[in-house]
Every structure is written in C-alpha cells, then in structure tokens.
Amino acid sequence: MSKSKIRVAVVGVGNCSKSLIEGVALYAKTGQTHGLAFADIGGYKAKNIEFVLAYDVDPRKVGKPLAEAIFAKPNCAMNFGAPENDLNAVCRGAMVKRGALYDGVAPHMSRYPKDSAFRIGEDADPVKKDIVEDLKKFQVDVLVNYLPVGSQSAAEFYVECCLEAKTPFVNCIPVFIVSDGHWEKKIKEAGILAIGDDIRSQLGASVISQALQELFLNRGLQVRFHKQTNDGGNTDFLNMLDDSRVKSKKISKENVIRSQNDIRGIPVPKNGIYAGPASYIPFQGDNKVANFRIEATGFGGAPVIFDARLSVQDSPNSAGVVIDAVRYLQVGKELGLVGSLRGPSAATQKTPPEQMMIQDAYMECRALANRRLTDSVKKNNMV
Q: Which part of the chain is the Myo-inositol-1-phosphate synthase GAPDH-like domain (predicted)?
C-alpha cells in the first residue's frame, strides 16, 4: 500500500453516490466489513477511500458541499445514519461542481414532479479542459461514472477526460467502453486501468440470474427460457421509461445470462432470454423488486419450472461493490497494470471485457487483493 487514501471523484450525485459515500463514512468509523467481497484489498480498506470531487447538473446539488448534496431530492435511498462529522471527514470539503450535460438527462424528466425527477440548472457546461484540470488539481486516483442509463455521449466525454488526465475509472453504467476493444486500446495507450461496464449489485437480479443459469447448466439441465424482470421507484427506473435509453441496459442484463451458455458452448434457444426493467412504481422508491422464471428440461425430458422473487434496496446493494472496484484499480495501478481489468470487471460488472463463471472471477479478484498476478493479468494488463 503506497498511499493512505484513495482520492475518488464521482460523476452523478444520485442515489448510488449517496449510498457509496454514506457507506464509506460509516465503515470508516465502525470498521464494519460485511457487504464487501474483501475487507482488505492490497492493504486498502473502506476507510482508505475519500471523495475529493463531484459533478452533477441538478441545481439542488451543484454548488453544495458533497456531504450535503447527497441528501438533496430526488435522491431517495435509505439513510445509513452516518454522523455529519464522519461524512465531512470522507468528503474532505468537496463541493459539487457543474457537470457536462450532453445526453445525461432524459427529456421526459421535466414532465414528472421535481421531488422525483432530475432538473437541469442554468450554469454553463464545463469543457474537456476544465474536467482534465480538475482531475489533475484534485489528484484524483479513480473516477466513478454514475451517470444515468443511456448517457452515451456524456459517458464518452468523461472517459476522454480520464484518458487525457491519466485517471483510472469505473464505468458503472451500460455504455460499453471498458468491454469495447477500440476503447481498451485507448485505455492502454493512456497507460491507465479501467473496470466496467454496468455495475452489478452485491446480491442483485443479475448475479442471481447468473448463479441460477450456472446451476442449471452445471447440473445438466437444458434451459429453454430464462426471464428476469425488475421494477422500482427511483430515478433509475424513471429514466428508463425512455425506450431509447433502456436498450443498452437490456442488452447488458441479458449478457449476464447468455454468457454462461457461451462459456460452455451451449446455444441459447430462440427467444430463450428476457431480462430488463419492467415498471416504474413511484411508491417503491429505492426498493427494487426482481422476478425470475426459468423453464428447463431435466433427465428424460422431465419439465422443471423455477419461480422466485427478490426484494432489495437498490442503491446500497451496489455501493459495496464499487468500494471493491475502486480498491482493485488502485492496487492494479500500483502494480503497474494498464487496460481493462478482466477479473474485477467480471466480478463487479454485467458486461465486462471477458465474461467468467462466478468462481473464476472471484479467484482473479482474490489474487489481485493479495497483489498476485494471474495468467489473465499477465496476458492482458502488463505493459
């Protein structure tokens, strides 16, 4: 461990940022470790993370201290109960700066109540030079992209800033960058690391679907149909009412299931997978409910039908995973690695550069947590 603190910037001060920042503040104070894949990654614990820079476009957050802005509407994630002093300690006095808009806010947001939807302030957008200067000035070690689903141009803008500033990043949304060969070439040329794309939750719908698909296939069943639908009432689900924005999300969620067939060389039946958001239900707030149905055939063609329901708090469910991702990047950077990290991406993201089985991804992460280089890392991430 070469630093006492990992300096983090967040793009998008929404529910996920709220849970991440509150979680770091609480865990730094209490020393808790549950909800983290590893309490210690290369010498770094949750308490070693601090937040030094943040961007948003909502006037209820821009210009406010980050420790205060995370509680502004339309954020609705549960409160962790972290004391104000502890929040201030991990936010280091960071203020929320005006971010670049591009396609970051869906037009239909303006038609919904302000307490439930994003609003756009009148401040001028920063340009690339401004962001790059900020990343350097605040000595940011890792940038976390928490833009809304469908923010293709905005996400690419911030990635270009990271490339120029040589800042590693976690891409938490289904804009396919870390998993894209063209972008990975740029990441390597910049000499930085990245993890992506599209964050998985600690125990969310996608990892449950993957585990079930793995189980069915490993037990020799033929999966004819796998359905996963999700509903919730936060801004993520409101944002995804726009069909044009949700397309990449559906692809990403279905990738998780399809990958387990691909790894084993098993064809996916026609129309055999359906995964994606189903409904925006304001009453639910940050509570996400996922429903699963798997139709399969077992020995002798005997039918097997599996139905299940999962209810979680959406934003806290992913915060611990991001804490892990940030630490993987910092350790990888200290080991002189570059490019898209395969194992940590497969463990923490829905669409990584290389899909893996759950146990294989875990083994890659455990090796990096112990500062050991696997064959995958030597092949893909050595200079």
A: 204-315
In this structure, are residues 369 and 333 in contact, taking their beta carbons and an 8 Å threshold?
no
The CA distance from 56 to 10, in Å, is 9
As beta bridge partners, residue 193 has 339
**Residue whose structure tokens are 């209820």:** 60
* Tens-digit pLDDT profile for residues 203-252: 999 999 999 999 999 999 999 999 999 999 999 999 999 999 999 999 99
Gap between the Cα atoms of 355 and 57, Å rounded:
34
Q: Say which range, 243-247, 301-305, 323-327, 356-360, has the weakest mean pLDDT.
A: 243-247
CB 217, CB 223: distance < 8 Å: yes
Angle between helix 128-137 and helix 152-165 axes, rounded to 10 deg:
50
CATH class of 6-200+316-380: alpha beta
Return the structure tokens found at 102: 């591009």
Domains in the chain: boundaries: 6-200+316-380, 205-313
| Count of alpha carbons within 13 angstroms of residue 160, beta-carbon side | 11
Q: How far from each other are the two terminal CA atoms of the chain, in whole angstroms?
A: 21
pLDDT in tens, 4-40: 999 999 999 999 999 999 999 999 999 999 989 999 9
Q: Please, what is the Cα angle at 202 between 199 and 204, to 5 degrees?
A: 80
Helix (H) or strand (E) holding 292: strand 287-297
Tokens at residue 1, please? 């461990």
Fold of 205-313: Dihydrodipicolinate Reductase; domain 2 (3.30.360)
In degrees, rounded to 5, the angle at the alpha carbon of residue 131 between the alpha carbons of residues 70 and 128 is 135
* Pairing verdict, β 96-98 and 169-171: unpaired
Q: Token pair for residue 369? A: 């947590």
For 222, the enclosing helix (H) or strand (E) is: strand 222-232
Question: Which residue type, as a one-letter code, is found at position 306?
Answer: F
**How far apart are the C-alpha atoms of 81 and 84, rounded to whole Å?**
9
Q: Can you give the pLDDT at residue 1?
A: 65
Say what the pTM is: 0.97
56: helix, strand or coil: strand
